[in-house]
Amino acid sequence: MLDIATFDARAGGSVLYKALAHPLAAEALAALGERLAGREVALVDPEGYGSALVALAPRALPIASVHVQDVQRIGQTVAGHAAQALTDLAAQGARDILIASFDAGRLVAQLRRLLPEARIETLDAIKLPAAMLSAPRYLDRLNFATNFAFFRDADGLSTRLVSANYWAGYGAGAVRLWLRLFDAGGRVLATWEEAVPSAGFAIDSAEVRARFGLGPFTGQLFLHVVGAAGHDVVKYALDTYGAGPGASLSCTHDANAWPADRYAGIPAPAPGERVVLWLQNSHATPIPAGAISFDRMGTERPVPYPHDVAGFGSVAVDMETLLPGLAWPAQIEMRAGRHTVRPRYEVVRAGRTRIAHPNVERADLRPDPAILDLPEALGRGFLLPLPVLPRTRFRTLIQPTPMATTQQAQPLRLDVFAADGTLAASHVIGVLPRNHDVALDLDAILPAGALAEGGHAELLYARGIGGAADGWLHALVRAEAREGGHAAESSFGAHIFNTLMTWRDEPQSYSGPPPGLSTRLFLKLGMQLGDARAKSFALLIYPASAPWHGSSETSLQLVAGNGAVVAQAPLAIRCSGSALVVAEDVFSPAQIATAGPRGYVLVRDTTCRLFGYHGLMTEDGRFSLDHMFGF
Fold this sequence. Notes:
By secondary structure, the protein is mainly beta.
């Protein structure tokens, strides 16, 4: 386990982690390690950065002793050493000092009075160039609006990252991207910058490959937003596509920019499938053999991955090879040791591939009896909205996925709603153990003909049947075309939706305190796939934990590449209902053309919080699906 702190549910992501792990900082850290090689360095750790610094240094730092200012930290272990008092430096006659702090000029001056002959280094040596900073204070979160994306252009498959300049909505001026592409071995293939327009933007692997004259590659793309305002999380949707008839098409969400201890929700392969976990190192330091392991969820018998992974490298880990005999609907847990941001898994079936992501499995949660006894004002409490595509064309399977290490017995129920908000079925799943292998086929729950045009389901806690709840309720939803063999899947977690009453940080808000009772969702437009046009769709869901407004007052706003709103269309969704929206059917071809290839649809509502899933569909039966993001 890397000795780093990356994300806290209360405090958010660690800016220090991003400042140390940035590829440019990693290069500077390697150069610093080279300068210090052969010396006996006293590490001064005034702010508690020392362990993370040493863990993320690409070249070992020759630390001989560690010194702290806070007397309460004396004797604590920092970077493998028992911390000593800062005042001990003079008695030891330290000649080489590394201060694990940025902007440490005052402390440097103080130490020079004690040790005038000492050579002193600080973390200012690894700072990013001033031109890459968005805020005056170096460890401001806006200076590290960064993320990784799985990026591939090989074997007939390309990737396309799409997003929007939502920073402009927070007052940002000129925004640009600093980008670095790594190949599977962690080598840098290209580094470049792009201006971000006022509205949407896209980065296509085929265009990048042609631009830089690259051969086939599979690796990762690092993104750094310069000029960010209001929001330090880089959100995007990532399409994987092939150009031929019947070729692959899938969509997945952003990478959740902080590494975690564990990830869960990886499906074991079904008959005829191959499941590959793309293990992508998020750091310049190699992942040693055995540091990553995989396990059938709930068995506590992890199997180590037996190979090293290069810094910023990517390897495909075949689940059948590592866990032979394990089959759907069993689930796989990944013990990641904080080496990688949220990874991707790839399911290959009948020559087609689909990409999806597992989720962060938390170790800081404990069951909370209050959740199964929430006040009546919060109604049904936590809900996980899941899409049901038109049942005449699609089969839907729903699999609850344990997403906290303490989840041993979850009491669950599934409510299914037609598009008009009518309850079509309510099914008590029961109390599921951690190692369950339950996957619900809605064909077995719904009567024939129900939800022929689509609808949605809501996974929630069942009360009065035992078990325990912690609010971190997750599930995987898989849609399979009844003809043609294409499939897609997505996973997400539960929240309290659309009630004026609050419980802790629920209902969550995009910004500010709860309750979150408004919507701002991003829907990309369609794209050309060879001779076929892939249309963009969204299944918008109006979940309500307690009764709320009878209908939404939703506006679909077509935004052009220059940020101008080309057209708007009203939409009313019944409470507990849904709507299947196809962007190219809502707006005219002329309006879509005016929006341009970097345009998008903003789903806006100030009266309620909508949840949504989006994707692409072609006339030849291909489709993709993942949850939408908001800002």
